[in-house]
Structure formats: C-alpha cells, structure tokens
Design brief:
Number of domains: 2
Enzyme class: transferase
Shape: globular
CATH architecture of the largest domain: 3-Layer(aba) Sandwich
CATH class of the largest domain: Alpha Beta
GO cellular component, one term: mitochondrion
Bound molecules: adenosine-5'-triphosphate, the ligand Cc1cn([C@H]2C[C@H](O)[C@@H](COP(=O)(O)O)O2)c(=O)[nH]c1=O
Largest sheet: 5 strands, parallel
Pfam families: Thymidylate_kin
Radius of gyration: 22 Å
Keywords: ATP-binding, Coiled coil, Kinase, Mitochondrion, Nucleotide biosynthesis, Nucleotide-binding, Pyrimidine biosynthesis, Transferase, Transit peptide
Catalytic activity: dTMP + ATP = dTDP + ADP; CMP + ATP = CDP + ADP; dCMP + ATP = dCDP + ADP
Amino acid sequence: MPFPRVYRRSSERGDRKQIKKPSVSIFFSLSLPPQARPACKERFPAGSAPVIHRTRRGGAENPSPRDTALSFPHRHELVSFLAGSATARPFPRPTPVRQRQRAAMLRGCTAGPPGPLRRALPAAAPAVRLRLRECVVRIPEAGAVLDILEKCPESQRKGEFPVVVFEGLDATGKTTVTQSVKDALGAVLLRSPPACISQWRTIFDEEPTPIRRAFYAAGNYILASEIAKASTQAPVIVDRYWHSTAAYTIATETDGNIQNLPPDHDAVYKWPEDLLKPDLVLLLTVSPEERARRLEGRGLERTKEEAELEANSLFRQRIEESYRRMVNPACQEVDASPSKEEVFKTVLQLIKKHCAL
Ligand SMILES: Nc1ncnc2c1ncn2[C@@H]1O[C@H](COP(=O)(O)OP(=O)(O)OP(=O)(O)O)[C@@H](O)[C@H]1O
Ligand SMILES: Cc1cn([C@H]2C[C@H](O)[C@@H](COP(=O)(O)O)O2)c(=O)[nH]c1=O
C-alpha cells in the first residue's frame, strides 16, 4: 500500500478548492512531536496516497471514532517510523477498545497499590501494560512503549556487578555525580526514562496522572532489562528509578504538608515485587536555597512539574519525605551541599562500603 500523505494543517495542502477530500481524517495534533514533522514530510512525500488530513481536537473536522479507527494502520506506521524503525514491521493493530475499558481508563482504576494512590501508580508490570493499552487508541506512542516493553524479558535478574541508583529533587547534583562515579568505576550509566522511550516524554508529561505515571513506570521496567544486561559486564549507575516514579506520584496526588502523606509503611512506599532491585539507593539532598542557586546556574527550560517543584515548597517536602519513606530498598541520604569533589568522595566511599567493589 502506498504511504499516506501527511499535512500539518489543511492550509498546507495549498488551494483548498483544488484539493480532494481527505480519505481518512485523523486525530494527529496531540501525539505527533513537532520535531518529527519535517522528517515525516520527507518520508511520506507529496503525491503518495491516501491523504491523511490532520484535524484539530474539538474542531468541526474532529474525526468520528470510525475515522479514527480507520486511520490506525497509518498512525502506527508513522509512529514506527518516528521511533527510528520505518523499515520494521508496523505496530500491531490495537484491539478494539470497548466502552467499559474507556471508562476504566478515564477513571484510571487499574491495579496498583491500595488506597487513594491506587489510581495514580501502577506498581506491577501487568498494571502498567494494561494502562498503556487502554490509552493506545488516543496516544499511539503508548503502543510504541508497549512494543518495547513486550520485548523485555519477564524475569529480570541482576548480574554479579553492583547496581547503584541516585535519587533526589531536580538540580541536587545527580547528573554531575553519576558521571564522575561512572568514570571512576568504569561503570555503565543508565537513566530513567531510558533513551529508547525518552523522545515521547513530552507527550506523556502533558497527559493526566494515571497515563503519565504509567509511562514512567513502563520506563522503569524497560530500564530494568537494561540494568540486568549491563550488570553482567560492569557496575551500573542509574540516574533515577522506581523511587522517583513513586515519590513524584505520591507528592502530586497529595496536598499540603507531609502530614497528609500516606502513613509510614503504607503499600505505596514498597518496591514493586516484579521489578529488579538495585543494591544501593542514594538520595541526594541540598537546602532549598542551594538548590535554587544550582537551578539558576543551570538555566534549563522547565517542565510543568519542575516549575511546580520550584514554586511549591510543600510539594518539594512531600517528594523528599516520600523518598525517605521508601523501603526495601530504602534510600540512604547523602548531604549533597558540599563541593562536587566532596560529594563525589562521600558517594564513592558509600558505594565501596555497601557493594562488593
Ligand atoms: N556539589 C555541587 N556543588 C555546586 N554545584 C553543583 C554541585 N553538583 C552539581 N552542581 C551544579 O548544579 C546544577 C545541577 O546539577 P545536576 O544537573 O547534576 O543536577 P540533577 O540532580 O542531575 O538535576 P536533574 O534531576 O534536573 O537532571 C549544575 O549546574 C551542576 O553543575
Ligand atoms: C524518572 C522520572 C521523572 N519524573 C519527573 C520528575 C521531574 O519533574 C522530572 C525530572 O526528570 P530529570 O530528567 O531528572 O530532569 O521528571 C517522574 O515524575 N517520574 C519518573 O519516574
């Protein structure tokens, strides 16, 4: 079948009078990353058919569910291409989503830890997969994540080398120290979300909590298979892992001060049973003033969540307190306020003390 034509908007097709009606209308606007559009046009040049007309959400041209369903093979082909696998097989057609499943998606009520956070945090691989499957109709990138997730082996066993995770609020120095530790130990450095899915992060960051968290949770399971493989060859250093997913979820889903967090020993602070465990988790903390200085010095663009983190000191406190309440493995707190060299020395000592190195 010839490849579809893709238009960013109807005006791109030139003179409206001369163009034929689109054969398929798709709901493209929210899922195609802007940086992908030029590549898309190059890959699917003008003149090929059928025409796919990108429509706006809620506009007069908003496709009916039937149009949307018709467009899936094309969308998946495109997403597959954007994922760097244009020559690979297209994604399998999603199974039809029934009304009840849609309602469940909106409620976000798939399995997770008990209690009010159940909706927000899918804490087992099947729950993560289910939640992604539930939104694949609307977000084809969820299908891409699922595809990668499904290729990961079910049982992920750590190799003989130690796995050390670094956690902490933004700008506490994780990137800086993980790079130094990697160099010093000849380690492999991995991060969450893993590189193979991080291009879709901006899409999921705009989604409601259950979907956003399912993306990060899926990232952890994909990361686990990378850790399993790498730890057979060398020590593995990981910049954020499950504790980040859990702590940010808990803090987002609660309000006010830390007294409103789920109590100590609540199931939300537990490590998922089916997720590969690290040997050591180091939680970097700095004073709010020092963190603000480092953020300022770095001057990067911020996500909505990062902006909230900056503006809302209670939010920051809830995140750090949630990190502290995590168990098995618990976080070992490291004061990361001293100089980069001193923090590096402290961290290296802790790794040598706790891990067989
Ligand atoms: N010990 C330190 N003393 C002073 N500045 C530091 C120290 N460690 C890191 N920095 C600086 O603080 C800024 C943030 O550090 P870094 O990017 O390593 O943090 P991060 O925890 O990885 O942030 P994020 O989670 O947002 O990626 C950088 O400009 C870095 O050079
Ligand atoms: C891994 C991970 C990240 N996040 C969110 C939390 C922060 O807002 C940013 C930090 O990411 P950075 O790459 O370290 O700057 O991402 C999250 O909510 N859940 C996660 O699992």
